[in-house]
């Protein structure tokens, strides 16, 4: 008779100074004036905050349920890390013939003169706390919400992608060169 596997504990620790709440399916992590939140409600996993830990209880041990559980735990850890430290993405501007002009205007980044085009290309800045800094050929995107920061950087990269040209030869565009957690 095979021995039963010990039950794995599904817990995410909350560090000191970070306040985590879970109400109406929305997980919110706060530290000082930094706040990040995400809707995490699902019927397959029950979420409860006890003391300085977030407990996740799956309703069964099916493969799909465990995958959802792991995703919820990762999202919770990302919220806590975002509130505690924040995230950044660094991008670089590459051009060979036509110099690009990049300007931040309200909640968007305008990229003009890309390939000599008259109309500017527009990349949206997601999230109210996402900050974009443009210094010459370096662009830095910072914020507390990992998904908003990553998608904002991705928007700039996607809007300057040319599909009908060989990317080994034609390298004009904006590219992500580094990303991570603020120190």
UniProtKB/TrEMBL annotation:
GO biological process, one term: cytoplasmic translation
InterPro entries: Ribosomal_uL6-like, Ribosomal_uL6-like_a/b-dom_sf, Ribosomal_uL6_a/b-dom
Gene3D superfamilies cross-referenced by the UniProt entry: Ribosomal protein L6, alpha-beta domain
Any one Gene Ontology cellular component term annotated for this protein: cytosolic large ribosomal subunit
A matching Pfam family: Ribosomal_L6
SUPFAM superfamilies assigned to the protein according to its UniProt record, in alphabetical order: Ribosomal protein L6
Coiled-coil portions: none
Entry keyword set: Ribonucleoprotein, Ribosomal protein, RNA-binding, rRNA-binding
Protein known as: 50S ribosomal protein L6
UniProt source species: Candidatus Iainarchaeum sp
